[in-house]
Fold this protein.
Amino acid sequence: MPTYVYECKSCEKSFEVEQRITADPLTDCDCGGNLRRVIQPVGISFKGSGFYVNDSSSKPAESKPAETKTETNHAPAPTPPSTPTTTPSE
């Protein structure tokens, strides 16, 4: 069951109550004042890799430099011999 925080508008007393989501919110305080439900921040934080690029982050994304090919002393692959082209005669 979710825990809701309520605050009295007249005596400023705040307290937590476990209620079902379908239950009506509390309206009356012990002092006779009106209660209001206080919205609490969400207690979850997504950190690490695997999230979208447009998510907020503390530093800009670093781009990796392109890898350069190193030359090797291999001989080039042999080319196949060219075949003469013939035209059919009539």
User: Anything to note?
Assistant: The first strand starts at residue 3 and ends at 8. Residues 47 and 58 are 11 Å apart (CA to CA).
